[in-house]
Amino acid sequence: MDSSIVNLWPLLGVAVIIVGFVLRFNPFVVVVVTALVTAALAGFPLQKVLAELGTGFVKTRNLPLILVLPLAVIGLLERHGLRQHAQNWIGHIKSATTGRLLIVYLGARQLTAAIGLTSLGGHPQMVRPLLAPMAEGATETRYGKLPEALRYRLRAFSAATDNVGLFFGEDIFVAFGAIVLMTTFLHEAGIDVEPIHVAVWGIPTAICAFLIHAYRLRRLDQYIAKEMANAPAAASTTREGGAA
């Protein structure tokens, strides 16, 4: 067999992980099954695969403690009014809107991720206790009490903004794991690419992602104004129907 032929069968592991997440299987099980399938298709011995899984487990056994401790601290801060303080603070900025607030956060998230500071944001430590309450507070300052559907929409956009900023920002960081993985894979295929070149070509994608999502956030402000303009009419219609 020609040694220059690249074995593409291990790429079926990507399909396995996609199907597993689409069907909402347990993420841990999906990742382990994907690793086993990919290793089998690549021709790795089962004993070696199990040894690597065991080594990875030993190296990351302290990871749950690292994840749990910040959650406890954030929970304690929330109990003492962190969310309320965030809402009150943003309420004093009269020019603030949800769209403008999230655009600023999107830019900051991308820039910090681009220099490797990926832990400065995140859903548990930033979106839930600070960003989402600030988005709700900015809207309540302008329009008053929010319908529940709109409140959940603001929370969803807050989480999505963090995702977009992180995902496209970290692709610019030269030491990001995905960049190292891509350059290693290309090197094994006989294509020599420097990591810095991959990172640089991630910049146009990051800029496009910022512009597209910023446009969606501007549209979000328009959507909020339209929904809140119709809210009083809907409420009055409901009261009239109940009185009748």
Protein model, in words:
By secondary structure, the chain is mostly helical. The chain is built from eleven helices and no strands. It has helices at 12-22, 27-42, 46-59, 63-79, 82-91, 98-114, 123-143, 148-170, 177-188, 195-200, 202-243. It is elongated and about 65 Å long. Residues 233-244 have low confidence and may be disordered. Pfam families: DUF969. The chain crosses the membrane at residues 6-23, 28-46, 58-77, 164-186, 198-217. It comes from Comamonas squillarum. This is DUF969 domain-containing protein. InterPro entries: DUF969.
Q: What is the tally of beta strands?
A: 0
Mean pLDDT: 81
The general outline is elongated
Main beta-sheet strand count, sense and barrel state: none
Strand residues, percent: under 5%
The helix/strand order is HHHHHHHHHHH
Count up the helices.
11
Assign the structural class, choosing from mainly alpha, mainly beta, alpha/beta, alpha+beta, or little secondary structure. Answer: mainly alpha
The share of residues in helices is over 70%
Rg value: 23 Å
N/C terminus separation? 83 Å
Residue stretches low in confidence (pLDDT < 50, at least 5 long) are: 233-244
